[in-house]
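Q: Can I see a sequence and its folded structure?
A: Here is a first one.
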Amino acid sequence: MMKSGNPLDIAVGMRYYSRPDIYLGGLAQVSLSPETFRVYEEIYGLGVARPLESGCPSFHCLPRQRLLAVLCKKGVSTLEASWILENLGVRIAYWGIKDAEASSCQFVVAECLRELTLSYRGAEELCLYPVSEVSADFVPRKHQLSGNVFEVILSHVTTDPTPIIQLIELSARLSYLNYFGYQRFGTVRPISHLVGRAIAIGDYSEALNVLIGFQSDLESPTVRVARKLFLEGDLRGALRAFPRRFTIERSILRRYIETSDPRKAILQGLPRGMVKFFVEAYQSYLFNKALSNMVETVGNVDEVSVKCEILELPRPDLPSEGCSKFSSQVIQEDLENQPRVDKTLFVKTVRETVFKPRDLKAGTTPPNTIELHFKLSKGCYATVYLRELLRENLHIRS
């Protein structure tokens, strides 16, 4: 293993590279986008979710009609897609959350809230493909999620990519620390865990300030101005300045202008389930720290899986013994002297400590690109694997 010097890695708790021997150096790189990064969900009994036809079909449905469907989107997260569809009159339930950096397809159960004809007017960013009508007892269950199939297009600068292919093939035989990936925290603004921590300790003013006001040089000047206006107290000016696609910021700002109450603004302005999403992001950050502490203690990634095959996500009141001590220690240190912690917001679940890519295939395509295909089990992040291969040549901020 090797310590990472990447500030983003350190900010989200990923302090180590598992396998420095498979680093490709400066020979290859990728800038993740819907054109270079594709994700297809796999569900037991349903198979792999892929587009069912070219173009987005229009369809008519009746109130409370429930459909199994494939949801495909480009540059839109599952949570954003859920909000967009609900505003159109369709509520979805899903097996897994997909991030905004990719072109992704996943299975969903869509319920029509009223009679409607869903059409997209030529939009390509989000598309719902109906598969079949389903009954009321057909609901997504987490245990049905097998994992995801990934397709990544790398570019290379060599006349002979054979050494790159050989290293990639070697990488498929190794295991890696099962960190939560960058997307869990935000890539342009890695703040989801900071918002979650503030919510968990009841500091909604801090949650509001971070969520609306935290500025990043990677954002457009227009958005930076909007965040600056918010921090200066010009709420209506900030609302006018935020582009319409910043639906979360605009929704929370409207509630804050109406109520002057940070707690109501957060709880009423966020989409359903997003408060839980933020607190889980905080737990994910602490898990990464706990896993880093563990590998530091035992010495290498192979010993991690021997010592602890699974590790609980940190939460208050975990026992300080066995494998739980690593998770218990990081949350105790982080929440020390915090008198108000809402323990009900923390999920109780475990996560495998290491993972391996499966069914990996790598082939060259002109001009100077490598197509990489692999599968990961549910909850594993392709970016965690790709950072081992590419390090600073993995560009995830678009």
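Q: Show me another, different protein.
A: A second, unrelated one:
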Amino acid sequence: MTRVTNQTGFTLIELLVALAIMGIVSVMAFGGLRSVITAQSTTDESALRLAELQRGWNIIQRDIEQSINRPIRDEYGDIGPAIIGDKDSGALTITRTGYPNPLKLRRSALMRVSYEIDEGSLYRVHWSAIDGASDEQARDIELITQVEEMEITFLAPDGTWADEWPQARIEANSIGLQPK
């Protein structure tokens, strides 16, 4: 007597082959997911860095566009130039206009602004008073991080490029003195 049984199901070998294939597909999917996550984090870091650079350069551009040739007086009353720049130190100091006054206080619309590199960051230092301003009145903002150096060159009125500003003859003329 023969018995016919209709058995359905998978053999052990079929199950092992299916598990092996699923394991390989899972490893490949995890590798792809990991590379997507790594690419996303790199893109996010780059986007944050780009946003920081754009914000910093926009502030610098706005300050330079609003700079004016107005000499200052230091805390001792000595006359100083409106713009000071040095290629070696990478520092730039300017007098600018456009200092907002929403409360309509009795004060100047001028501001003294300086850009300096300190401990790998570019800082914007500003004084609300341009004459007699001291370091105690200075307020600084970190603009851009991971800065190694800043190079500044100036276009002189005679069409030549200078590494520092003011040049001796220009400084004397800008404050109404004759060069020696």
